[in-house]
Amino acid sequence: MERFLSTWVASSVALAFAAWLLGSHMDIGEPNETMTNRVLAVVLVGLFFTVISMFVAPVVKLLSLPFIILTLGLALLVINALMLLLVEAISDGFGVHFILDGFWWAVLASIVISIAQAVVRAFLPEGD
Fold it and tell me: What gap in Å lies between CA 91 and CA 69, rounded to an integer?
């Protein structure tokens, strides 16, 4: 449980950083909402992202392992971008505002999120 919570926090911070860095190409929460509602949107998108990363992404990566090996790992960029677009679709289904401008912005966002998560996880306690 502690690992899930630390991953959720790291994902939420990384998503907020990526949204700030990419500006209008990645948006979490309506711009005219209160700060509390925007933070809640970031936390919910972070929850969706964590659940997808823990349960769906490993299965997809396992099934596409030959392709990942063939492309020397570059296919992981595509898989991570598709997982981010899946989070966008799930967020939309729950009525949470999370917008990406397209596939290539999702690729860039997944790179930024991966780096930001690594930095944030360095400061969080390790879970079991």
Answer: 31
Q: Give, as one character, the DSSP assignment of residue 74.
A: T
Distance CA 69, CA 74 (A): 9
Percent share of the chain, pLDDT over 70: 98
Distance separating alpha carbons of residues 98 and 15, to the nearest angstrom:
10
Cα(96)–Cα(57) distance, integer angstroms: 21
In this predicted model, what pLDDT tens digit does every residue of 107-128 receive, in sequence order?
A: 999 999 999 999 998 988 775 5
Chain-centroid distance of CA 34 in Å reads: 22
**Does residue 98 carry a pLDDT above 80?**
yes
